[in-house]
Amino acid sequence: MTSVVLYEKKGAVGLITLNRPERRNAITQPLLTELFNIVEAADADTEVGALVLTGQGSSFCSGIDLDCLATDNIVNPRGDGKDMVDVFQACATPIIGAVSGYAITGGFELALNCDFLVADETACFMDTHARIGIHPGWGMTQLLQQAVGRKRALQISLTCEKITAKKAFDWGLVNEVLSEETLLARALELAQSITSVNREMMQTVKGFIERQNAVHVNEGLSQEKAAFKTFAAKVLKS
Q: For 82, which of 15, 86, 131, 188 could close a Cys bridge (C-beta 3.0–4.6 Å)?
């Protein structure tokens, strides 16, 4: 059986690839379980200094697989109480998101949980929580406004409009826009650069940068998470 998340070590860089291309890498309980396990194992690997997260095929991640919403436990996929935000926040190893194609709703949240993003010209970001009536639960309400500012976050989330790669760059959501052919190579190059610095000091600097808005954001994340759990419980009962 083919794994729905692939992992490959390229020297000191770990490459994580979502591997459900036939479903545009839509999120299921098995995908989250494998992703969380890989992130934690890579973070514990002293040979790995940086991670790149990308998607197989034409999309980065199209969000929650709606066919599995009423059956899969996406709130607590491993049964240990940890969700996407918990796992990614606990990861001291920097994670670069390499976005090609769609990053929609839950897939957009997955991208936002990376430390920073690079994208190719086909990249397209959308937050459709309000359109489809699914409660955000992996940081959208807090991490998006941290990335682009309150007013732009409101425009993205309330209109549910597509954000092109160019606009994502102009608004500070992604750091670089590249061609499809060079995206992964550039992401790996950036990750390799990170692995070449002093690891202890790099993680110290990363920690201080993240503390800037930590108190406010973490409070908002906790409230979003609690409301998402309530929403998910209602879906499972219906």
A: 86
